[in-house]
Amino acid sequence: SVSINRSPTDETYRWKSIRLCYLTFFISSLGFSICLSSIWPYLQQVDTESNEAFLGWVVAAFSLGQLIASPILGLLFNVMKQARIPILISLVISLFGSALYAYVHIFPTNRRFVLLVARFVIGLGAGNGAVIRSFVSGATTVAERTEVMAKVSICQSLGFIVGPAVQAVFTLLGYPGPVHGAALQINMYTSAGLLSFLMAIGNIVLIAVFFKEFFFETDTMDRSLANPASINSDAAEQLQHQQTDSQTKPDTLAALICIFTFCVLFFNFSTLETSYFIVNGTASDDSAGLPIRVEDHSGGCSPALPWCYRVPAVKLPLAILAIAVHSVGYPIAIVLAPSVLTKILGQIRQGVWMGLLTGGGSLARCIGPIVVSLLFSGYGPQASFLTSSGLVLLSLIAVVAFAKRLVPFDVYRMRRMRLGGYGTYAEI
């Protein structure tokens, strides 16, 4: 990006807006996770015709909504050239979905479908992740971006962690809870939707009042016309190459590798998550716990699973090592994938690309549990984990094979310029 002299006020507004993005991402993730631990008993409570198969659709509805909304909101960000309106639209959608989740009881019939729609609508609102990542990538320098994108991912993960803890506190309300009138019910189930509703209102107010647009490339060009003295010599040289930059498109293959890696990471996570839920949902009380049969451990195997005593047990130290390695590698990779992507794309409006990234992760969360549950239930953990490992290996091969192309846009552009814009993939 071009270096300009920004006033302290500009910097204050810029970082205030970035921190609001942190908060918005946290609230969005909290809206996803706060209901997970209670959604099955809530579904049974509001509609006795609900079954485990329908529960799967309710859980997947959030990711499906996010899959649809992410590229649309990302495109809207590109077209409108601002983040405020798309974010506010997503928050209003989340507001409606949270209210619907808390007021399922007012519908006389088919309440399970109302709950399904509520989760889908909340997922639509969560599509703002594409807009947030796009804004952050445009409002930061290359040097700042990795740290800021890491904090975005941390806020997302923090929302996933805090959600179940908040729901655990809400269990103290019990059912039917302290308030159980016809117009309003406050209990251990509806409190999650009501809290999400209130947080969405607060988030809307903060974005509407304090959020300011900031985009390095656009801001630089506008200021350069008004005050040429504010641009240093290096920046002036970069401005001379503006037309060349606009004609050089980002490396599409490198960007797709980052998106594929991001999707694989979510699929890999769903392997552990889904395997755990299958075991704890089918195993007897004395065998629930781990998603694999471990030597010297009573858990992880149920007679309901045909492969239970056919698949060799995993040694406990090996199981601990595998989980430890995954716990270290996953958070690092999940931060680096979007960070590298933003640098590959450079200082462009990244709404559509971030929509593809977020939507791809949502797609992995949709199909991952289905594929893993079929493999795990029918053939055991070896089939599901080998499938996940194969995808990780494929992603690793792609990253290693094209490592020289996973570079910031400025580096890619200079290589293209040295080759006259006609270099082959191998040369680049």
Automatic annotation (TrEMBL):
GO cellular component: endomembrane system; lysosomal membrane
Membrane topology, as annotated: Multi-pass membrane protein
Transmembrane parts of this sequence: 20-42, 54-78, 85-107, 113-136, 157-176, 188-211, 253-272, 316-341, 353-379, 385-407
Any one GO molecular function term: transmembrane transporter activity
Top-level lineage group: Eukaryota
Gene3D superfamilies: MFS general substrate transporter like domains (1.20.1250.20)
SUPFAM superfamilies noted in UniProt: MFS general substrate transporter (SSF103473)
InterPro entries associated with the record: MFS, MFS_Domain-Containing_Protein, MFS_trans_sf, Tet-R_TetA/multi-R_MdtG-like
Subcellular location: Endomembrane system
Keyword entries, A-Z: Membrane, Transmembrane, Transmembrane helix, Transport
Listed PANTHER family: INNER MEMBRANE TRANSPORT PROTEIN YAJR, MAJOR FACILITATOR SUPERFAMILY DOMAIN-CONTAINING PROTEIN 8
Protein name: MFS domain-containing protein
Species for this entry: Macrostomum lignano
